[in-house]
Structures are given as structure tokens and as C-alpha cells.
Structure to design on (167 residues):
């Protein structure tokens, strides 16, 4: 071995050899003091996190209210512009020689088609709010309304392959 390794093995160098080792009671006091200091730091971090979350929720609540107000304004102006566009389409079709009835029927059919498409898309996205993956995993653990239909946690197959949709 090298000389530095031998010196380290003999215990003749290093900061640990600067004085006598503390007795057991002193070591326990130091451990307790360090534990209390750690607990105090954790409590301080928890208080800071709680105040941060409270401030963030307050900001989110305020922003949500303002966002709803602007969504209402957007809906009102969007609806009025859609009505004006359909009225312009009806006037254009009428000027081409179509009867008012046929021109309004075409405008209404266009509005109905856009409404049906938007409703279909909304229903597709609402399916994502059902938390299907979470419900399958909870069912495998025996929790929830699908628990009786799901395989056990030690089953070889996946919960997705099992048909656990509610009747």
C-alpha cells in the first residue's frame, strides 16, 4: 500500500482524530438536536409550500372567473358573427336565384352540420374524463364499482384485455 493509505489505516491523520470521541449520552443529544433541526426545517418547508399552494389556488380562482367572463364574451360575439355569416350566405344564395326558403334551408343545414360535428367531438373528449385507466387499476386492487368484474392483481392477463365495462 502507499504511505497515505497506511497512515489512514493507522488513524494518525484526518479530521476525525482531532479529539476524544464523545460519550454515548452526548452522541444521543447531538442526534436528538439534529433530528429536531431536521423536523423544524421540514415544518418550515411545509408551511412555505402550504402558503405557495394557497396563493396559487387564489390566483387560479381569480383567473378562472376572468376566463369565464371572456369565454362568455367570445361566445356572444362568435354566435353573432355566425348569424351574420349565415345571413350573408342566405342573401348570396337568394341573389343567385334560389328562393328564400331554399337559401334559409341551406343555411340551417350548414348550422346543423357544424353543431352535430361539435357535439360529436365534445362527446369524444368527455370520454377522457372517465379516468378509465385509473378505474381499471383500482378494480384490479378490488376497489370501486368494477372490482367484481376485474381480474385479480396476480392474474397473468392485463386488465385492459378483460372486459370490465359496467353492465
Amino acid at each position: 500500500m502507499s504511505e497515505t493509505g497506511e497512515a489512514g489505516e493507522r488513524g494518525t491523520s484526518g479530521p476525525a482524530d482531532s479529539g476524544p470521541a464523545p460519550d454515548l449520552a452526548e452522541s444521543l443529544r447531538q442526534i436528538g438536536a439534529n433530528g429536531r433541526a431536521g423536523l423544524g426545517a421540514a415544518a418550515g418547508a411545509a408551511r412555505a409550500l402550504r402558503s405557495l399552494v394557497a396563493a396559487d389556488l387564489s390566483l387560479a380562482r381569480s383567473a378562472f372567473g376572468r376566463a369565464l367572463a371572456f369565454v362568455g364574451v367570445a361566445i356572444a360575439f362568435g354566435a353573432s358573427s355566425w348569424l351574420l355569416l349565415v345571413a350573408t350566405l342566405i342573401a348570396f344564395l337568394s341573389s343567385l336565384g334560389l328562393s328564400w326558403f331554399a337559401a334559409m334551408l341551406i343555411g340551417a343545414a350548414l348550422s346543423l352540420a357544424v353543431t352535430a360535428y361539435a357535439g360529436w367531438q365534445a362527446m369524444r373528449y368527455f370520454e377522457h374524463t372517465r379516468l378509465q385507466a385509473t378505474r381499471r387499476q383500482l378494480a384490479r386492487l378490488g376497489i370501486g364499482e368494477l372490482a367484481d368484474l376485474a381480474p385479480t392483481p396476480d392474474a397473468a392477463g392485463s386488465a385492459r384485455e378483460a372486459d370490465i365495462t359496467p353492465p
